Automatic annotation (TrEMBL):
Protein known as: Uncharacterized hydrophobic domain-containing protein
Transmembrane segments: 41-60, 66-92, 99-118, 163-184, 190-215, 227-248
Record has Transcription as a keyword: no
UniProt entry keywords in alphabetical sequence: Membrane, Transmembrane, Transmembrane helix
Extent of the signal sequence: none
Length: 328
């Protein structure tokens, strides 16, 4: 059964502040949230998604923060995530699954498009913009919740719609997915996992905040509370599950994933400025030593030693270089 959120017989309660929600305010909020009732929304959504993924992927490849910020503003994924929270708050099961389907399809499409774009680019050594999106911790879930609350308020009150651009910048959705696609194509699976974890963190944080804000504002349906409780509990459970890896990342802030990313970035810069600009294929930190697999491997022994010296000076670790063939 299809439910039109703008039907007049949809019962909406007074909000937490005991204020009535006028039909005009309700209709405006619903039309903004549930955009899939608009004609030809699929083509607009797909076009903006492809454009934002293209901008973000190219921006990531050249380590351009300004370009990536532009992609964040263009990206359309934030709206269905806020709408998912709105549908759960209203207890609309069909709308909830519809929004979730749009989000999942957008996520898979973004990763695939970024993967294809990466195929057309030369081997990319993970840079700062990529690495910052591969090690989320507890701070990121806090940012997602606060930004999600601001986004929900922005959709509810049209006079504060300018908030939405700030929310898009504060919580990156497309750049982590693009990072995942690029890292998968490059074979850096650990970094790909980290970027997906960041996206899921933002997804859950925004959804939970949206449910809470819409519930307080009165966008809830007392005739359909069962799905509201189920959806809210499911969101909380998923949030609890990701707390563990986020906590581990936070605890390892100085010596774990961020330390690995820092070493990877420093070593990548040294290799980039060296003869033939070798690409890092694998990096393994073991105690105070690091094994770095590069390609092409220096033919000249003096050049190999010079590269090792520069890497040790940059990373502060004992460096061991090897070629891909020596791993087999």
């Amino acid at each position: 059964m299809h439910i039109d959120p703008n039907k007049e017989d949809t019962f909406i309660e007074k909000n937490f502040f005991s204020q009535d929600i006028s039909p005009k305010e309700r209709t405006t909020a619903f039309n903004s949230l549930f955009f899939h009732y608009k004609k030809d929304w699929q083509s607009s959504f797909a076009l903006m998604l492809v454009i934002s993924v293209g901008i973000a992927s190219l921006g990531l490849s050249e380590d351009s923060s300004a370009t990536i910020i532009g992609a964040m503003i263009v990206a359309p994924l934030g709206q269905p995530i806020v709408a998912l929270g709105g549908a759960i708050a209203l207890g609309w099961r069909i709308q909830s699954f519809r929004m979730l389907g749009i989000i999942i399809l957008g996520m898979i499409s973004s990763i695939l498009i970024a993967y294809i774009i990466s195929l057309t680019l030369p081997d990319i050594t993970p840079n700062k913009e990529m690495l910052t999106r591969t090690s989320p911790d507890l701070r990121d879930i806090g940012i997602a919740i606060l930004a999600g609350a601001a986004g929900a308020w922005g959709y509810y009150r049209s006079e504060f719609s300018t908030i939405l651009s700030g929310v898009a910048i504060a919580v990156a959705l497309v750049p982590p997915l693009c990072t995942c696609g690029i890292m998968l194509e490059q074979g850096h699976f650990i970094l790909a996992y980290g970027s997906i974890l960041l996206f899921v963190t933002n997804l859950i944080g925004i959804t939970f905040a949206s449910i809470l804000v819409f519930f307080v504002l009165g966008l809830k349906n007392s005739k359909s509370r069962k799905w509201f409780y189920k959806g809210t509990i499911a969101t909380i459970i998923l949030g609890t599950i990701i707390i563990l890896p986020l906590s581990l990342n936070y605890q390892k802030f100085n010596s774990g994933i961020l330390f690995y990313n820092s070493i990877y970035e420093k070593a990548g810069k040294v290799c980039e400025l060296s003869v033939n600009s070798p690409v890092i294929k694998e990096l393994s930190i073991q105690g105070t030593g690091v094994i770095i697999t590069i390609e092409p491997f220096p033919d000249d022994r003096d050049e190999e030693q010079r590269l090792i010296t520069e890497l040790e000076r940059s990373t502060g670790l004992q460096v061991f270089l090897q070629s891909p063939s020596s791993e087999q």
